[in-house]
Amino acid sequence: MDRFRMIFQYFQSNSESVMNGICGLLALASVKMYTSFDFSCPCLPRYNMAYGLGIMFVPPIALFLCGLILNRQSLVMLEEWRRPQGHRKKDLAVIRYMCSSIMQRAMVAPVVWIIVTLLDGKCLICAFSGSVDPQNFVGFANTSPVQVQHLLAKVPCKDDELVRNNTSRKAVSRYLRCWSQALGWSILLILILAAFLARWLRPCFNQAALLQARHWSNYIDIEQKIFEETCCEHSRLFAHKCILHFFESMRQEIKLHSFSLPREGEGAEGEEDLLRGITDQDQVNKLLKMWYYEKPPLDVSQPQGWCGGRRQKPQH
Amino acid sequence: MDKFRMIFQFLQSNQESFMNGICGIMALASAQMYSAFDFNCPCLPHYNLAYGLGILLVPPFILFLLGFVLNNNISMLAEEWRRPRGQRGKDPAVLRYMFCSMAQRAMIAPVVWVSVTLLDGKCITCAFCTSLPVETLGNASHTGLSRGEMKRVLARIPCKEIYDGQEFIANEVAVRYLRCISQALGWCFVLLMTTLAFLVRSLRPCFTQAAFLKSRYWSHYIDIERKLFDETCAEHAKSFAKVCIQQFFEGMGTDLAAARCHPPRKTPADAEEAAEKLLGITDQGTMNAALKSWHRCKPPLHLHSPALPSSNGWAGEKQPPVHPPAPRREVAAYYSRV
């Protein structure tokens, strides 16, 4: 019981912290994945755009789905949404609150990836090097369109022999990186402003409803955890009783089949109880064999439930 | 510290959390194994494909099997599947649940290996360098090489030091192209796996929640029941051993007293408890005899009742059989001295 209480207190205090912790870990993992990822632009005319934009947008989708999967509350919300009404009404405000809090946490890692990508610049340089206007750059100004496309596609690859000594390559690269970083910082600023406003202005709009929704969403989460914990406790007690019944029925069967004299010893009473009447190698072997070949039925309602198969209990 | 102990105990008692920990460790081990592995492309026409695809597909299979082997519950699943029906019916839904949850956890390390391999690019570069579209990427027009020769040249792409086809297709161009394809495949694979995992997890509450709760409860029950049964058997064995040894020593003490023909020493009242613990053995010679007898002639696995005189016959010539024959039912006739 004491253990139960300690665990309950732990869960009550840490449900939000656990979720915040997971979301932070995922954001760090996202940065680490980007830095350890070996970005290599193909430097071919049509492939650049696909590769660059793919690297910018496909991992965030995967990270978003990961954020949803790893968050326990998303399951709780889905169960609450899909459950039959029964005796308890469904409150859509609670479900909406849970959904928005899950989405906010799941969006952190993808946004971190996109911002890191933009601030680094390689993706945008790779994707849009073929789309710059060659007339603005001296080295690409007087070449044929096909040739210029080919050359521009090679800009992200510094060591390629075609553009190694081209002075405008660095210019294009710097130009694109500047746009990329400007975009990155702007997005970061907008998001932080939006978060700031949302948090600051929230108490002005319907604070009471928010408090209610938050309370009941916490409640649903805790209720589910406690239900699982109670089921574990219950199955432990059930198993304990089932095994005790099994030993008891073995003792009865042994009594019926053997003619051992009634025990009268006082000194070893405690130990004899623990032995549950099984005092022989054969009896132990028989007990273990019975346990494997004929597990007792899942029914602890009868005090001496069954006895070696004589009484047929309904199968579970 | 107490709180940590409680949490640790809770995690251990909840088999699912413990298994999540193991599968996370295996995923990290898989990534580490790949980075420590020294990839060596053979750079020969037919061997490249075999080596590349082998490194891509064989270690994940091994990791998948390892995931099952390291999972304690596999023996529980096998036991539940193969046990005779007896008094208790078998629920296939429970077996399916146990198998699915084990398979899902075992899949994580192989998926990590395949993703890391594809994102790194060396395997695909090695495996598919002979299938490069030379016409689009390089200058295949003015070569006089046959297809076989061309394949041999292309096969050396991953090995920069011995590559000699720079005029047909530049090494960097080819490597970049293949790596780009490999990374695209890798990210698509990661996206596919995460989508699958998301669907599996989120469709369950919509369709089969009640059946899921039932299967989960009974699979936990089977695990707990097995552990409790082992604990009960261990307790029983301990008590059995205790009584067996006690009776052995009592038998020894009685026989020794009878052999020496003097009554057991009368100990003073305050030393009675200690003397009881000594079980009648009070000198080196007696102890040595007791130890030798324990080794040569262990008592039978049958605890007689304390009211009857204990006559294991250990000191005598006849050796009592260790396993009393099974069909014998007249227990009293065997153990009484009459």
From TrEMBL, chain A:
It is found in: Membrane. Keywords: Ion channel, Ion transport, Membrane, Transmembrane, Transmembrane helix, Transport. The chain crosses the membrane at residues 49-71, 92-115, 182-201. It is a multi-pass membrane protein. Its main location: membrane. It holds the Pfam family Ca_hom_mod. One of its GO terms (molecular function) is monoatomic cation channel activity. GO terms for cellular component: plasma membrane. InterPro entries: CALHM. GO terms for biological process: ATP export. It comes from the Eukaryota. Belongs to the CALHM family. PANTHER family: CALCIUM HOMEOSTASIS MODULATOR PROTEIN, CALCIUM HOMEOSTASIS MODULATOR PROTEIN 3. This is Calcium homeostasis modulator 3.
TrEMBL record, chain B:
InterPro entries: CALHM. One of its GO terms (cellular component) is plasma membrane. It holds the Pfam family Ca_hom_mod. Residues 308-327 are annotated as: Disordered. Keywords: Ion channel, Ion transport, Membrane, Transmembrane, Transmembrane helix, Transport. The chain crosses the membrane at residues 21-37, 49-72, 181-200. It is found in: Membrane. Its main location: membrane. One of its GO terms (biological process) is ATP export. It is a multi-pass membrane protein. GO terms for molecular function: monoatomic cation channel activity. Belongs to the CALHM family. This is Calcium homeostasis modulator 1.
